Amino acid sequence: MLSVLIETRNDEEALARTLGSLIGGAVEGVVREVVVCDTGSTDQTHHVAEHAGCHYVASGGVAAGIRQAKGDWLLLLEPGAKLVDGWTEAVVAHTARQTMAARFSRSRGSRVPFLARVFSGNRALADGLVISKRQAASLSKHAGSAEALARGLATKKLDAEIWVAPAKRESRK
């Protein structure tokens, strides 16, 4: 069974979209729990997580979420990412026979041309990440965020697709 971790900060709408794509996995019994790891939201992210039945971790980031997770395998997603139907079969098959981490393939509609990816600074979690809890716990000791945990990790490609979350706009001060 899989624990899903989503690191958020003022992502109430994006979180709702991502949670909607996980319903099929919960119905099939693949998703055991969803842990929302908040990093200081001031919007209604907390209420979205609670109403959806998620575990809400208000401090400690992804490391606290990993410690709380009950599954042997974790699925890390960005808020706003949506998994395409059929993803559960690929994840179950992967976790049954692999020990290495894996990422989803980008859905045709969310693929970015190669040069645009090179010059835009690719987000390590854009394609999601399926990782063993043991490996994630080890990596989280030195990573301050889910993004840092996923960066530079050798992974396998899953035979399942993801709609990548739109790039988050930074607020100007």
Summed up, what is this model?
This protein is of the alpha/beta class.
Detail the topology: elements first, then pairings.
Blueprint: E1 2-8, H1 12-21, H2 23-27, E2 31-38, H3 45-51, E3 55-57, H4 61-68, E4 73-77, E5 82-83, H5 87-97, E6 101-106, H6 114-120, E7 129-132, H7 133-140, H8 146-150, E8 155-163
Parallel strand pairs: 1-2, 1-4, 2-3, 6-8
Antiparallel strand pairs: 4-7, 5-8
Helix pairs in contact: 1-3, 4-7
Pfam family, one: Glycos_transf_2
Enzyme class: transferase
Main location: membrane
Task: List key phrases describing it.
alpha/beta, 5-stranded mixed beta sheet, 3-stranded mixed beta sheet, Nucleotide-diphossugar_trans, membrane, transferase, EC 2.4.-.-
The low-confidence parts are none
Largest sheet: 5 strands, mixed
What oligomeric state is this? Answer: single chain
| N- and C-termini, Cα separation | 43 Å
Helix amount: 25-40%
Query: Could you tell me the mean pLDDT?
Result: 90
Give, in spatial order, the strands making up the sheet with the most strands: 3-2-1-4-7
| Count of helical regions | 8
What would the principal axes of the Cα set say about the shape?
globular
Keywords: Cell membrane, Glycosyltransferase, Membrane, Transferase
Main location: membrane
Pfam families: Glycos_transf_2
Protein name: Glycosyltransferase
